[in-house]
Structure prediction request, 407 residues.
Amino acid sequence: MATGLYIAPAVSAYEPKYQVLGLNVLFGALLIVVLGSLAGQWMGVMQKLGYVDNFLWGHSGYEYVELGRIWQILLLLGLILWLVLVVRALLPALRKRDENKHLLTLFTLSAVAIALFYGAGLMYGRQTHMAIAEYWRWWVVHLWVEGFFEVFATVVAAFLFTRLGLLNIKSATQSVLFSTIIFLSGGILGTFHHLYFSATPTGVLALGATFSALEIVPLVLIGYEAWQNYQISKSTKWIKAYRWPIYCFIAMCFWNFLGAGIFGFAINPPIALYYIQGLNTTAVHGHAALFGVYGILGIGLMLFMLRGLYPDRQWNDTLIGWAFWMINIGLLVMVVISLLPIGIMQSVASIKEGYWYARSAEFMHTDMMTTLRWLRVPGDIILAVGELLLVIFIIGLKTGWSLKEKR
Prediction:
């Protein structure tokens, strides 16, 4: 949300009237929805609400769309307000006929999709059959988060790389168009690999898994080309200033390939869904893809905006360097040393003995599995320290300790 609001007036060099008022209203609405929904979910879990009130204000019971219906509606209204603020600031740039026109149009379309497609979560009611409710829930989880956010991330990465001179505008537009075509032609099909629980035919599951895996390709290609061009041009002074945002964007492309691509596709084909969906193999994909892609993308966008807000200040790279590497190394250690071995052992147990056994207390509390679970702690600590250093670095940009002394 912040990226769209930052990029729009920066590109068009136009600040619409009452834009600041709109931003303040949006920020207030965000606080209300976040704090209100958290309070409602806690009350729902603690069984302090009746059935109807819990559905409206508490916890819906569905993962990723836990918000009560009232909070869902308010969130959708907030997203629409965000869309209006972004588009009204982009209008002057969209009216121009230049080489950025196509990329900006795709950026706008992806913003429209993000704002409106959350509405799929409103398509089920309190007493809707679980198979139908789960179908619409996966429209939110797959089409909204894994699909339109994927397109948005690809557009934003391509747009920023072209502005930094690391990506040819033609290559960027082609990659984004490729991403959009794959999603619009196969996004709904890609959702079907999630519907293994409702007697979806094997062929449809396989088709869904294939299209879902293809969604990562454009972002990986963009990251690879940007890395090559960065290696060539990194001696340039102003490129050096954007070193850490660029590193974050490239790291995002790596995690997109590993977490969303390899680990995601490993659990999506029909035979894998039958034996290992919901085991720690799913957690491997979830952690690597969700934090690896969107978490590090968020960090990179934040650093990009902080760099742009104060272009004349020189950063002291020590803290942010340690933060960047510890976050990525911590995530990798956590996944490879703990989650992945647990998932593989559960998969073997599921194939040999049965899915019930792979999730049973008898199996999960063996000495080997207990040791592997504790081996997650080193990666978690490294990741947490990296995040703490990031917070200290950002505070230091305000206080001055994250800046180089002027000579």
